[in-house]
Structures are given as structure tokens and as C-alpha cells.
Specification:
With 421 residues, the chain is an alpha/beta fold. The protein is 25% helix and 29% strand. It has a single domain (2-416), classed as Purple Acid Phosphatase, chain A, domain 2 (4-Layer Sandwich), CATH 3.60.21. The strands form four sheets. Strands 1, 4, 5, 6, 17, 18, 19, 20 and 21 form a nine-stranded mixed beta sheet that branches. Strands 7, 8, 12, 13, 14, 15 and 16 form a seven-stranded mixed beta sheet that branches. A hairpin with a 6-residue loop joins strand 18 (331-341) and strand 19. Helix 7 runs parallel beside helix 8 (266-278).
């Protein structure tokens, strides 16, 4: 108990005004029940919104591995339910004016076998969980979008839109755009999403070493590390097109970088500088499956700063230290990007960036099933209702420290977000 109290006082001293989740053991707490999805968020949380600010919230990769599929299948109803994974982060997502996530899977349907790595096909019910949590926009141009071929890509786009989401990066046909124009509280945002190609096979372009069919070439946005100059021209055209449709803030979601590397590579830095010069305001990265730092890059053209979040890490997955001998894929962040519009100049400015460290909690239910919870690590309170067993307390504390240290060691330091109490 002394150790827990000392940790609390240290955190309070460093981040005054913030409250955190108490990760200390409580004998009265019980392990979360299987498929528990009770939503008490509206009773537990409230926050005063600034009517003059627009908050865009983003999270990292949503991935469903085989063990997760097994764990969330109900044989009695022959259906899946993933809502309970998100119950503790739901209030943070709902506080956003617009919330974004990266859907790193395909939704090819039940006729295709549901599967995890290396060929992903997930149940449509994951979308119900994301809707339940408060997400509005999904990115889907990632290295697994061709796992079930062209028809898998097309069905993914159709189902995502049918569930009420805006979708960037892919499309079901060439009559609709792959980008999103979204107006939020009087500000128009333009969202685009690109994924890196892999090496060609003969004359065929590939994604994750899968040949891209001719029919699919125009259905999702890609770039190639060996063809960047041509890609930049296409991206500039896209930016201008979104601006011509009224976009005041340009956001690019980039699927890039090296897996499991906690620092951006030279390509990420190079592309970011070019996108800043082209007029992109915010860059949100994914694919490394670990958190990478953020920075501001000054445009050589406009002299404005572009916010670059190189990688938000995994928001939900089964990638864990006991499976891949790496603890960092368990970590993620919820990043809040606040904008304001000047009443006199009518120009939109980035006002503030804050974040919530997250960690994927996993505990066995039986020999084949596990409980999964995304834990927001920025809350520590004595009336904690998030039960974490003693074995996982140290892992959660370690995750919290590692994420904070990563951001503190870089040149741009976002603000640690307060709890929503």
C-alpha cells in the first residue's frame, strides 16, 4: 500500500491537476465477467466542453487475432460481442466532437472463415463495438486490407458505411471518393489515408506481398517508397481537391514505418516534411504496433507547424510479451487534438494536444478464452472500479511509465489529459 501511495503522490506532483486510475489491488474487486458490457459511463463521467473548441480524438490499430475471436464468440447465440473491450475508454471517445480509429482487418463476411494473423477477416460485430464506443471515422487503407482479395476490400467498405461510419482510404467503387470531408461545429475537415506498397512481383503491384488485382488498384490509396516523387504529386492533387470542397483542416492517416520500432524511420520523417510543405495540418501514423513520439514540423512553404503523430500504437490486439516477446504492442494512446476558429480572421488553428496512455489488459477465463479490456492509465482514484489482478498491476504501471517517458524524451511533449470525473 505504501508503494501504491508513493506512486500516486509522485504522479500528482508531476502532473498536478490530473487524476488517474488506481492500479493497486482491491480485495473487494472481482475479475471482469465474461462478455460484460454494462455501460455506466454517463453516470460516472462528466466534463465541461468549451463550445469554442473542436476536439478530434484518434486512436491506433484495432486488430482481432484468433484468440480474441474465440474469446468473444457466444455459442448459444452464434454471435460475437466486443463491446466490453471498450467500456473503460468509451467516455474518452464520446467526449470528442469527432473520433477516429484504424480498422486493421477485413470484413469479408461469414462465408469466408473468420481468422486472425496472417490473413485477417473479422466479424461485422467489431463495428457495433466501435459505434458503441463513439467512433465516427475509420481508416482502412492498411497492409491487411487485401487479405481477402478485392471482394473482401469491397465488402469492408460497404459494411463500414452501412453501419454509419465515414470511411477513408478505401472505397467500394470508383464513383465515390476515398477521402472524407466532414464538418464539425462550423469547421470542415478533410481526411485521407494511405498505405505503403511492398515490392512488385513482376509487373504487379503488391500490398503485404499480395498481388493487387487490376480491379482493386483504384479502390484504395497507396504510396511506394521507391516512387515518392510521383506519389507526392498525387497527394498534392488530393489536398487541393479536398480544399476545393471546403476543407479547412487537412488530416492524413499514414500506414507506414517499421513494425515494433519505437522511433520513426527516415522515410517517415522525409514524407512528413513533404506533407507539411504540401499543406497537411495533422499526420496520424499507424502500422508499427507500438507508440512512436510526436513532433511539430515547420512548413518551408507556409511556415505553419504540422502536427506529426508517428504512431499511436495498438489500441486493441492480442500482441503481447508472452506471445511475441515484446511488451510495447500492449500500449497505445488516445490523442486529443483541439482546434479553434478565430472569429476575426476566420482561420482555424491547432490549440492543444493531449493524450491518455492506454494498456490492453488480458486475463484468462478458461483454457481457451480471455477477458480483454482497454485500460485508460491516466486515472488513479481510491474508488477505482477497474479491477486488475496483482499479476497485471506491475505491467500496467510499467506501461504508464514507458509511454510518459517516450513523450518526455522527445522535442514535442503533449499534455497528459485529465480524467473525466
Amino acid at each position: 500500500m505504501k508503494k501504491a501511495l508513493s506512486l500516486i503522490f509522485v504522479f500528482m506532483f508531476i502532473f498536478s491537476g490530473c487524476k488517474y486510475i488506481n492500479l493497486s489491488k482491491d480485495k473487494n474487486n472481482e475479475t471482469p465477467k465474461k462478455n460484460q458490457s454494462k455501460d455506466n459511463s454517463k453516470e460516472k463521467y462528466s466534463i465541461k466542453k468549451d463550445p469554442n473548441k473542436i476536439r478530434v480524438t484518434a486512436v491506433g490499430d484495432i486488430i482481432l487475432h484468433e484468440t480474441q475471436l474465440i474469446s468473444h464468440y457466444d455459442a448459444s447465440t452464434k454471435s460475437y460481442d466486443f463491446k466490453d473491450n471498450f467500456e473503460y475508454v468509451k467516455p474518452y471517445i464520446e467526449e470528442a466532437d469527432l473520433a477516429i480509429a484504424n480498422l486493421e482487418t477485413t470484413l469479408a463476411g461469414s462465408k469466408e472463415k473468420y481468422s486472425g494473423f496472417p490473413v485477417f477477416n473479422s466479424p461485422d460485430e467489431i463495428l457495433d463495438a466501435l459505434r458503441f464506443s463513439g467512433f465516427d471515422v475509420l481508416s482502412a487503407a492498411n497492409n491487411h486490407i487485401m487479405d481477402k482479395g478485392t471482394q473482401g476490400l469491397i465488402r469492408t467498405a460497404e459494411v463500414v458505411k452501412s453501419k454509419g461510419f465515414d470511411l477513408m482510404g478505401i472505397r467500394e467503387n470508383t464513383k465515390v471518393p476515398t477521402y472524407v470531408i466532414k464538418e464539425v461545429k462550423g469547421i470542415k475537415f478533410g481526411f485521407s489515408n494511405y498505405v505503403f506498397e511492398t515490392d512488385k512481383k513482376g509487373s504487379s503491384r503488391t500490398l503485404n506481398s499480395i498481388k493487387i488485382s487490376n480491379n482493386a488498384l483504384e479502390l484504395f490509396d497507396r504510396f511506394n517508397y521507391s516512387e515518392l516523387e510521383a506519389n507526392y504529386k498525387e497527394m498534392e492533387k488530393r489536398i487541393n481537391e479536398m480544399k476545393s470542397k471546403g476543407a479547412e483542416v487537412i488530416v492524413f492517416s499514414m500506414h507506414w514505418g517499421n513494425e515494433y520500432e519505437r522511433k520513426p524511420n527516415e522515410y517517415q520523417k522525409k514524407i512528413s516534411k513533404k506533407l507539411a510543405d504540401l499543406g497537411v495540418d495533422v499526420i496520424i501514423g499507424g502500422h508499427p504496433h507500438v507508440i512512436q513520439p510526436m513532433e511539430y514540423i515547420s512548413s518551408n512553404v507556409s511556415k505553419k507547424n504540422t502536427l506529426v503523430l508517428y504512431s499511436l500504437g495498438n489500441f486493441l490486439s492480442n500482441q503481447r510479451r508472452e506471445i511475441i516477446n515484446n511488451k510495447y504492442p500492449e500500449d497505445g494512446i488516445i490523442v486529443n487534438i483541439d482546434f479553434v476558429k478565430d472569429k476575426d480572421s476566420n482561420k482555424v488553428q491547432l490549440d492543444n494536444v493531449s493524450y491518455v496512455p492506454t494498456w490492453v489488459y488480458r486475463k484468462p477465463i478458461d483454457n481457451t478464452k480471455f477477458t480483454y479490456k482497454i485500460i485508460p492509465l491516466n486515472e488513479v482514484k481510491e474508488d477505482n472500479n477497474i479491477p486488475i489482478d496483482e499479476e497485471n498491476i506491475k505491467k500496467a504501471e510499467d506501461s504508464y511509465k514507458e509511454t510518459i517517458n517516450l513523450f518526455e524524451s522527445y522535442n514535442a511533449k503533449p499534455v497528459l489529459a485529465p480524467s473525466l470525473k
